[in-house]
Specification:
three-stranded antiparallel sheet, mainly beta, 1 helix, five-stranded antiparallel sheet, 147 residues
Length: 147
């Protein structure tokens, strides 16, 4: 599927796949006027990708953590998964949160997130008085692991 992309800055990079079967496309930091930024422990920095996208109608883009960046550096999207609606035309920005106890640095052109294309499914809510009974019922967090 073709997704239209617009570079908003000259140094922006088009997302790339790490392998032929990769689901996510690596997204690159596009720092405006600096080579790197610092993210102190337990804080976040909003980092632009320098691009905007136009997915086909009925699709949206999910912004996910890069496993290496999160496990090795403690950096992850602050909202864990970002959702960019199909009608959003602004710059894609990743709010990276530093979970580590050390200041971390992000360099211009560094891979900071993954973009995944998803099919949008519309929902119509139908209000009812009762829901169908299930074995689980109203059991919440951790309820399915009990013997």
């Amino acid at each position: 599927m073709k997704v239209k992309i617009k570079k908003l800055r000259q140094n922006a990079k088009i997302p790339t796949r790490g392998s032929d079967y990769a689901c996510g496309y690596d997204a690159y930091a596009c720092l405006d006027g600096c080579e790197k930024i610092s993210i102190p422990p337990q804080s976040l920095a909003k980092i632009g990708l320098g691009i905007s996208l136009e997915p086909e109608e009925g699709y949206y883009v999910g912004v996910y953590a890069r496993s290496g960046l999160s496990t090795k550096e403690g950096l992850r999207p602050a909202n864990c998964v970002g959702l960019c609606d199909e009608d959003y035309r602004g710059e894609y920005i990743v709010a990276l949160y530093n979970d580590s106890s050390e200041t971390r640095y992000v360099e211009d052109g560094e891979r900071i997130a993954q973009l995944v294309l998803h099919k949008r499914r519309d929902m119509e809510f139908v209000e009812v008085d009762e829901l169908e009974e299930t074995k689980r019922g109203t059991g919440g967090f951790g309820s399915t692991g009990r013997a």
